[in-house]
Write a structure and sequence with these properties.
434 Repressor (Amino-terminal Domain), plasmid, DNA binding, two-stranded antiparallel ribbon
Length: about 90
C-alpha cells in the first residue's frame, strides 16, 4: 500500500493513494475493481482511449455512445467470461 503523510496547519493527514478518488465511482468502475481489471486493460481490449474509460469510471452520469459501449461490453465479456450487458452499467 502506498501512503503519503501530509502536514498542513498543524494537522498530519494520512492519504492512501490507491483509494484516492474511489468514493463515488460508477457501477462500471466498481465492476472493474471487483474483477481486478484495469482501465488500461479495457481500453486496450476494446480499442478505445483510456480517457474514455476513465470518464466512464468517474460517475454514473456518463454514458458511452452505443458504438463505444458495444466495444467495451465485448471486451468485458472476453476479459471476464461473464455475460455482461449495457444495462448492467448504464441507462438509455
Amino acid at each position: 500500500m502506498k501512503i503519503h503523510l501530509s502536514f498542513h496547519n498543524g494537522v498530519i493527514t494520512l492519504v492512501n493513494w490507491f483509494n484516492l478518488g474511489k468514493r463515488n465511482r460508477s457501477k462500471f468502475a466498481r465492476f472493474l475493481d471487483k474483477h481486478g481489471i484495469t482501465q488500461q486493460d479495457v481500453a486496450n481490449k476494446a480499442g478505445v482511449s483510456k480517457s474514455t474509460i476513465s470518464r466512464l469510471c468517474q460517475s454514473d452520469k456518463f454514458s458511452p455512445t452505443i458504438k463505444t459501449a458495444s466495444k467495451i461490453i465485448k471486451a468485458l465479456r472476453q476479459l471476464t467470461k461473464k455475460d455482461v450487458d449495457y444495462d448492467d452499467f448504464w441507462t438509455m
